[in-house]
Amino acid sequence: MSELSLMVTITSRKAARKFIGFYEDMGMPVSFTTLGNGTAASEILDYFGLDGSEKSVMFHVITADKWKEVKRQLRMKMNIDIPGIGIAFLVPLSSIGGMKALNFLTAGQEFKKGEESSLKDTKYELLVTISNQGYSELIMDAARKVHAAGGTVIHARGTGSHLAEKFMGVTLVPEKEMIFIVVRKEQKNAIMRAIMDEAGTGTKAGAIVFSLPVTDTAGMRMMEVIEEEQSEEEISAVTE
What we know:
The protein has two domains: about 5-115, 2-Layer Sandwich (Alpha-Beta Plaits), CATH 3.30.70.120; about 125-215, Alpha-Beta Plaits (2-Layer Sandwich). It is α+β, with helices and mostly antiparallel strands. It is about 35% helix and about 25% strand.
C-alpha cells in the first residue's frame, strides 16, 4: 500500500480539543487520542515555551495528498511552527486489514492502492521505548547525554509477560511506560545504544527500544534551529 501514513500529533492537553476540531474541519473525523507527559529538559522547555507535562497524543490515518493540505493549514491556522503549539509527524503504514477498515480510518480521503514504494532517506526517526513503569526519567537522562531533546511518555499495560522469561530471560511486570522521542536519523544509533546500556533488559527498567521512519514533520523548525546552534558551538569549541 503506497502513500498512506499514521499521523501523530503531540500537543498540550489544553490545546487537544482545538486540534481535534481542526482535524474534523479538515475532513478527518476519525482519531485516537491518549494522554501523556512531556520529558524535555528545563532549558529546552524554556526555549520552546513548552509546558513539561500533560500532553495529548492524537493518531490519524492520512494519505500523502491529504497531508500536503493538512501540513499547510497546520502552519497557517494552527501556527504549529510557533514554539509551544505542538508537533505532527508521519510514520509510514504498509497495510491496513480490509477495505472497510481502510475506508473507516481514512474517512473518505481519496486513496488508490498502488505498488509499495521503497522509503527515501528520512531526516527524522521515531524512537519508541517500552519500559517498566517509573523509569522514564532514567531513560530520558540516558538519551539526553547523547543530545536527545525530549520525549513524551504514555502509560500502558503489557501482555504476554509469561513469554518474556522464555525469550529474554527476564520477568516483566505488566505496568509499562512508552516513551516517544523524535530524533535526527544520524542520532538514532547513539541514543538507542545509550538507552540499552543504562536501561535495557538487564536492568530494573527492562527497556526495549525500536525505531520507525518519520517521513515528514510539522512544527520542528525551532528544533532544527537549536541543533544548528549546538553544532556551531561544538565546532567553535574544537577550533578555539
